[in-house]
Design brief:
The protein is α/β, with parallel strands linked by helices. Helix content is about 40%, strand content about 15%. The chain has twelve helices and twelve strands. The strands form three sheets. A seven-stranded parallel sheet has the order 3-2-1-4-5-6-10, sandwiched between helices. It has a three-stranded mixed sheet with strand order 7-9-11. α5 links the parallel β5 and β6. α1 crosses α7, α4 runs parallel beside α5 and α6 runs parallel beside α8. The longest helix has 21 residues. The chain is globular and about 55 Å long. The relative contact order is 0.13. The structure holds nicotinamide-adenine-dinucleotide (NAD). Nicotinamide-adenine-dinucleotide binds next to α1, α4 and β5. Nicotinamide-adenine-dinucleotide (NAD) binds next to α1, α4 and β5.
Length: about 325
């Protein structure tokens, strides 16, 4: 298959591209705006592959999309602003990319009659105290991030109903693994623990997430792209739930540090308490997650320990200012 992968220079997109190039005959064009979270370093080991090419551009730019989509059989859209904290401070980029960007891509897919897979999130359902959300649960997003992602999902579904476009939606739970930008919980805590910095935990740390190893999400997306029924959404959840504070404790243990490094800091406004997905529908299609959280977390910590070339430029650049603004603390050199 010839795939256009939008947002393929980010965390999940780059893992997806790597998995597909290694495990299939796919040709892949990545279209990416290279925001702070998108980095060519994430694709560095793939650049020499003749089946891979890169277009620098935004999904909301019809000319860039027309260039990148030229030879594609299908589109997979990862492109997004993804950090809830940033969506609270500057929501405009979230509206532009998720609403306008998804619209431009859908138009291009419709015109060329291409299959279109939208990568979405469990956050569109909002928080749930007990039980799990199914694909027919109402969308009830609570942050500008999740609200604009939910808006994009609705627009994607409307293209199926209105124009017959072959759309699919994959709603993943919280991902973790190699190449994740260190503003997100797991890499943030791993890098701080490795450096001996303080670990800022929001509120009481009892927010529960359903953790999914990034390679499992990549294989779930590929599975839905090939076997999913057009017009359907599929939840792709991880095998284990864990409270943030317990994630942090396990990371400290894996890094040989103790809990005295933990700082409880002012909670994020409107912080969702628990996300949980029921994934029976995608399992009925023949996919299941293969990585348990304990094993995946150990692998992830080892990857960050062994790949300082990847994170050192981030920790010594603009990320430091963002970090100080967000947590009122500084990172050690
Ligand atoms: N990280 C998670 O835990 C998680 C869980 C479920 C779903 N998702 C979804 O998966 C997708 C990828 O998430 P991620 O964690 O890899 O994000 P990321 O922030 O690491 O990467 C996003 C990528 O999109 C690119 N991008 C942003 N705006 C763009 C635009 N307008 N045009 C072109 N490229 C643009 C960025 O440069 C970057 O390469 C997102 O749609 C996100 O909502 C993420």
């Amino acid at each position: 298959m010839r795939l256009l992968v939008c947002g393929g220079a980010g965390f999940i997109g780059s893992n997806f591209v790597r998995t597909r190039l290694r495990g299939s005959d796919d040709e892949i064009v990545v279209l990416d705006k290279l925001t702070y979270a998108g980095r060519r370093e994430n694709l560095q080991d793939l650049e020499e592959d003749p089946r891979f090419s890169f277009v620098h551009g935004a999904i909301e730019d019809p000319a860039a999309v027309a260039t990148a989509i030229e030879r594609a059989d299908a589109v997979v859209n990862f492109a997004a602003e993804t950090h809830v904290d940033r969506s609270i401070i500057e929501p405009d980029a979230f509206v532009r990319t998720h609403a306008l960007g998804t619209f431009v891509l859908l138009e291009a897919a419709r015109e060329r009659e291409l299959r279109f897979l939208q990568v979405s999130t469990d956050e569109v359902y909002g928080s749930i105290e007990e039980g799990s959300f199914t694909e027919s649960s109402p969308l009830d997003p609570s942050s500008p991030y999740s609200a604009t992602k939910a808006g994009a999902d609705l627009l994607v579904s409307s293209y199926r109903h209105t124009y017959g476009t072959e759309t699919l939606i994959c709603r993943g739970s919280n991902n973790y693994g190699p190449y994740q930008y260190p503003e997100k919980l797991i890499p943030l805590m791993v890098l701080n623990a490795l450096a001996g910095d303080r670990l800022p935990v929001y509120g009481d740390g009892l927010n529960v997430r359903n953790w999914l190893f990034v390679e499992d999400f990549a294989s779930g997306i590929a599975h839905v792209l090939e076997h999913g029924t057009p017009g359907e959404a599929y939840n792709v959840g991880g095998p284990d739930e864990c409270a943030n504070i317990d994630v942090v404790r396990r990371i400290l243990e894996l890094c040989g540090r103790d809990e005295s490094l933990i700082d409880h800091v002012t909670d994020r406004p409107g912080h969702d308490r628990r996300y949980s997905l029921a994934s029976e529908k995608v399992r009925a299609l023949g996919w299941s997650a293969s990585m348990r959280f304990d094993v995946g977390l150990e692998r992830t910590v080892a990857w960050y320990r062994d790949n300082a070339w990847w994170w050192e430029p981030i920790r010594s650049g603009a990320y430091r200012d963002y970090y100080t603004r967000q947590y009122g603390q500084t990172l050690d050199d």
